[in-house]
């Protein structure tokens, strides 16, 4: 990779700014000052700016706490999107949500620019579990728990994979739901079969990774290496 491309990715600056920076003499490659923007940076080379090491991550993986009213898309002509919330920090990355939540749902959305890994995460055959906390307009019954475990048949005749429905002992109208499938409006339609409406729906975990409780709605952070590996398997 050329030095200007490396600098642009590592510092999230335009390629023209990266060219000027290279020319300034502040950048070293393996300890040697390097002023030429088209210098190839060998794999594993140590690049530094003013002596501070620069790391160019190939991809970005972010955990976002989606607020109510924001759409799970990269761009939208009308509404704020989950990518809009992080765009200032990653102006040069083509981020997208790996899996969607409804506009009124909240909680864990994973943003990345790594298409193949997102594809693996979402592949139906991998059955990555997703955990939701739901607030309902009526009480959860044993019939629902058993029905979810057996596989709910939706109004359109589609029978879903078994799902876990765990009532909240402190609130008869609240529960935790774990799905291993991603059907449009799935939880709302599942409770709809039993005549219940979903008031609130918050995704708390994807696979073994829990949404960081320190993230307020609209806040995000990068996944740790351990979280990334838990979701995607060992690095390539
Ligand atoms: N099920 C739904 O109905 N909505 C979501 O956002 C996620 C799961």
Topology:
Layout: H1 3-11, H2 15-23, E1 27-29, E2 32-33, E3 47-49, E4 52-54, E5 61-66, E6 96-97, E7 106-112, H3 115-122, E8 130-136, H4 142-150, E9 164-168, E10 171-179, H5 186-193, E11 198-206, E12 209-210, E13 220-222, H6 225-232
Parallel strand pairs: 7-11
Antiparallel strand pairs: 1-2, 1-3, 3-4, 5-7, 5-13, 6-7, 8-10, 8-11, 9-10, 11-12
Helix pairs in contact: 1-2
The structure holds uracil.
Short description:
The protein has 236 residues and is of the alpha+beta class.
- Any low-confidence stretches, pLDDT <50, length ≥5? none
Structural class: alpha+beta
**Estimated helix fraction:** 10-25%
Query: Count the strands?
Result: 13
Name the overall outline: elongated
Task: Please name the CATH topology of the largest domain.
Answer: Alpha-Beta Plaits
Q: β content, as a range?
A: 25-35%
Give the names of the bound compounds. uracil
The CATH top-level class label of the largest domain = Alpha Beta
CATH architecture of the largest domain: 2-Layer Sandwich
Q: In angstroms, what is the radius of gyration?
A: 22 Å
Number of domain units: 3
Describe the model:
Helices cover 22% and strands 26% of the residues. The longest helix has 9 residues. The protein is elongated, with a radius of gyration of 22 Å. With 236 residues, it is α+β, with helices and mostly antiparallel strands. The protein has three domains: 52 residues, RNA-binding S4 domain (Structural Genomics Hypothetical 15.5 Kd Protein In mrcA-pckA Intergenic Region, Chain A, Roll); 91 residues, 2-Layer Sandwich (Alpha-Beta Plaits); 78 residues, 2-Layer Sandwich (Alpha-Beta Plaits). Helix 1 packs across helix 2. The chain contains six helices and 13 strands. The two termini are 19 Å apart. The structure holds uracil. Uracil binds next to helix 5.
